[in-house]
Design brief:
- The structure is a homodimer of 308-residue chains.
- Chain A has ten helices and 14 strands.
- Chain A is an alpha/beta fold and 308 residues long.
- Chain A has a single domain, classed as UDP-N-acetylmuramoyl-L-alanine:D-glutamate ligase (3-Layer(aba) Sandwich).
- In chain A, the strands form two sheets. In chain A, strands 6-5-1-9-10-11-12-13-14 form a nine-stranded mixed sheet, sandwiched between helices.
- Chain A is globular, with a radius of gyration of 18 Å.
- At the A-B interface, α7, β14, α9 and α10 of A face α7, β14, α9 and α10 of B.
Chain lengths: 308, 308
């Protein structure tokens, strides 16, 4: 099976209490693809960058089995740039700069060779653009996962709802689930959001883990308690990448298998935040991944006999 | 084995977005004892109330196998009273009234018949008073669990640290763990707090679950995602009661068994918040408890094969 990833490829400049970076590689599709590459060797990227985007970054993506034929490089233009500064609690951040550049008129084109992808991951983007990708697929993918954010709820809610109605899995954080549903209880929020179309909802709670809902079931994956969260940038995208990468490789979209996928997603997020940017995600070994999964098992596994 | 519970028995008046109550039965020791009574039939209470405390409440406690011989009833005095109002998020509240009454000069006396208790639960109280109880025990209990709060960190930190150094398990919430340790990372906070004396630390995160630490291990118990949190009052105490009640009954203080105890504690907390005050805790069936435990198993249980 193969995976199609749509989203931003960008430059980020990040400041956290632990230090700051110059312009480094970032973007939702970058994190998603890299995280997915530890599971699937058949990843197809659709995104856009400017002429300033270094060839070495493209080669790095290709070394991670990421097909970059769908990465548009716009002559005379600049790559999307974001800079931000995290507060001490690492849960909140201020955006310092957003330069849309090539993103301003991004018109994703799904190459013919990508048409057979059975898994589609729509990273956070303008909802209308995400929808254009779905509409370009000649055969509907087996599973479409959509990530979005509160910004689109504020300025393009109806468009977003239209896109949400076309996907199988929606991923949002807890605040966004509350905003989208108008419900404070996440259980009630999930019911309302599932009624909008998706069969599955993932609510990401950062350091508090993630919830996977379908109409009848709920699963909770913890976040690993870490000594240091170095840089939270890309954690949600790494989660999504691990999730969709695992599903693509195992070809199994049952709730049971999605539970495993959520654990693998959580593992990728836990790696991501341990270094700046994509630093940790570009050089993981299978042994590191296995050890991390074992930590998740040890963290929540218990063996209980019922009473009556 | 038997359990000794020290803490407040009180009247509460509670307002939440779902309604408000008149003076109802409350107090840390009340919630702890009631929750523990679903596991142990040998619970001994030390607390103090005024002449205004209804006999029917005492009878209710006794029906839950709670020995009230150590419950002092002070003639001509009034029971401790607290009233508060919860905000919409249910995570924060304003105290409206605190009338210490009988608590002002509470001098706990451990009856001779309680001296053989092997499990001791010190509910939130003045740290010096908690210590007086430990010092009254002729034989040190097998396990001493201490609950406390930020208030004592603000006004009696050295006293609190002295008491903490004498116990086996400390329970605090995440904000309190950060305050006590001066560390934002809960992993680092746990290491610092364990260096203060306790062999185990439980960090309660409310709707985000609870972490159990010892020097080398960590276990995470989720909170059950609920449709409604009706009244959070007593949730932490119900957690502690389920935890210590289960340990008392199983007589096993290994880390493996403490993991189970944390799950039972979480189950009792999840029941507690579904109704006002102690309403739900006074009338649970073994079947209800089993069903709830099964929900916890279903919520976090997954079956994963490592990759390499």
């Amino acid at each position: 099976m193969s995976l199609l990833v749509i989203g931003t490829v960008a430059f980020d400049a990040i400041e956290t209490p632990f230090g700051k970076t110059d312009k480094i590689l970032g973007g939702a599709a970058t994190y998603i693809s890299l995280a997915a590459s530890y599971f699937s060797k058949n990843i197809n990227l659709v995104s856009v960058v400017g002429e300033d985007f270094p060839q070495e970054n493209i080669k790095m993506l290709q070394r991670h089995y990421i097909n970059t034929d769908g990465l548009q490089i716009l002559k005379g233009q600049k790559t999307f740039f974001w800079s931000g500064k995290y507060h001490t609690d690492m849960n909140t951040r201020d955006t310092i700069t957003t330069e849309l550049n090539v993103l301003e008129n991004f018109n994703p084109v799904v190459p013919e060779a990508y048409q057979d992808c059975e898994f589609l991951m729509l990273g956070n983007l303008v909802p209308k653009v995400q929808r254009q990708v779905i509409e370009q697929m000649k055969t509907r993918p087996k599973l479409i996962v959509l990530d979005t954010m509160n910004f689109w709820m504020d300025i393009a809610l109806e468009d977003l709802k239209k896109t949400i109605s076309m996907v199988d899995v929606l991923t949002v954080n807890d605040g966004e689930a509350r905003q989208l549903s108008g419900e404070y209880s996440l259980v009630k929020a999930a019911q309302k959001i599932l009624a909008m179309g998706p069969k599955y909802l993932i609510i990401k709670k950062g350091e508090h883990g993630a919830l996977l809902f379908n109409k009848d079931q709920v699963f909770f994956a913890p976040a690993l308690p870490l000594e240091e969260v170095f840089d939270p940038t890309g954690a949600g995208d790494s989660f999504a990448g691990g999730f969709i990468g695992y599903l693509t490789e195992t070809k199994d979209i049952s709730f049971e298998n999605m539970k495993r996928a959520v654990i693998f997603g959580s593992a990728m997020a836990s790696f991501c935040v341990e270094k700046f940017g994509t630093e940790k995600l570009v050089a993981l070994t299978p042994k590191q991944l296995d050890d991390r999964i074992q930590e998740f098992i040890d963290l929540v596994q218990f063996d209980i006999a019922l009473i009556s």
